[in-house]
Amino acid sequence: MSPRVETLLDTARSRLVRLTPEQAAHAVTYERALLVDTRPAADRERYGTIPGALVVDRNVLEWRLDPTSPHRLEQADDPRRTVIVFCNEGYASSLAAVSLRDLGLVNATDLIGGFHAWAAAGLPVTGTAPTVP
């Protein structure tokens, strides 16, 4: 990773309370947190999906989750709701979560290690049998 990207990630992550897979699973089950999968379709097909995760393409994430947007998803109803973004390994999701925070989603965060960490932790995955690279 380039030093510039590493600095960008460090800065973004300093603004988040990132969650482990176990913490994220607990938040989704008991705290009404919204789990958001921003991975490309090819990765979801290859590795599987997390049951109950909302799939939102990264290029429309802000429009779909901003509670004030006329294009928001029904689930994006409360700017205080915990939104847990995940990608494959937890890099792009950190940047995405900070973008959501900048829109006013005060509890937006991401999943440490992304989908692959979730699968490696033995948490539920559907679809193609996951393989952790």
TrEMBL record:
This is Rhodanese-related sulfurtransferase. The keyword Nucleotide-binding does not apply. The keyword Transferase applies. SUPFAM superfamilies: Rhodanese/Cell cycle control phosphatase. InterPro entries: Rhodanese-like_dom, Rhodanese-like_dom_sf. GO terms for molecular function: thiosulfate-cyanide sulfurtransferase activity. Pfam families: Rhodanese. Keywords: Transferase. PROSITE patterns: RHODANESE_3 (PS50206). Residues 29-127 form the Rhodanese domain. It comes from Jiangella alkaliphila.
